[in-house]
Structure formats: structure tokens, C-alpha cells
Amino acid sequence: MRKMMWKTVAVAAAVIWGFSLGGDSRGWAQDGPKLTRMMVQSYDLLEAGKIEEARKIYEQVLKEDPANPLAWNNLGAIMVTKGKDAEALSYLQKALAHAKGYRLKVNRVCAVNGICLAFRPLQEVYGNQELAPLIRLNIQMVKGKITAPPRKN
After folding, report:
1. Which domains does the chain have, with CATH numbers?
2. What tens digit of pLDDT does each residue of 35-80 get?
3. Which of 33, 40, 41, 90 is most buried when burial is the number of CB atoms within 10 A of its CB?
């Protein structure tokens, strides 16, 4: 599991520092400034430990944009914090189903309970990083947690 954590940190570092702006694929520029602000606000609430407030905003984003893979991904991270791993996996699979061609630029990544990554986008900026590989990594981590034997104390 520790090896997976280091892999996660490496991917997160690449996400944060390795982007260049540009591209014309689906991303924040098409989603509009309102949804971007909502996603940034919800991430900041998640990072501050205000899980329920963040969850409500992600759900509102999904009402306006039901195919938003970043909102589905970050809801998956919230379910991990609640210990609802099966539900987290379901959300992450929905995220992956909508992630093809979705590109973004993030400026922060948080590890939730050492497992699932949530992403905070830069406001009104999108990049050339594909979201799908990051969601796949989250799915692997959650599946690993579900199938891992219980820890002995």
C-alpha cells in the first residue's frame, strides 16, 4: 500500500507541475466560470474538512452538468472519507465513463484518507492533462482497499 501511496504522490506532482496551457478538448473553458467557481469552492471546503458542504456543491454541479467527471471523481473522494468505499467506486466509475477527452489544469491535489485523490482546478483555465488516467488510479486504490485484508492492531 505504501508503494501505491508513493505512486499517487508522483502522479499528483506531475499533475500539478507538469501541465502546459492549451488544447481544445472538453475542459473548464467550455464548462463556464460559474461551474469552475463551484468546483473550486467545493474543493476548498473538502480540504477544510467541511465534507457535507462540499458534497452539496458537487451534487449541484452534477445537476447542471451530469457528465462532469471531475465532480464525480471528487464525490468519490468524499465517499472514501465516509468509509463508503463501494459507493466511492461507483462514483469513480461514473467519472471514468465521462472522462474521455476531458482535460484540465489543477493547482492542488489532496489525498483523502491516503487513498483517493480529489482535484482543485485553476479558475477558468484548462490544460492538456487527461483526467481519465488519474481516475483509473483512484479506482485501483479504492479496489485495493476493498479487497485488502483487515489490518491487525
Report:
1. 2-14+30-145 (1.25.40.10)
2. 888 999 999 999 899 999 999 999 999 999 999 999 999 999 999 9
3. 40
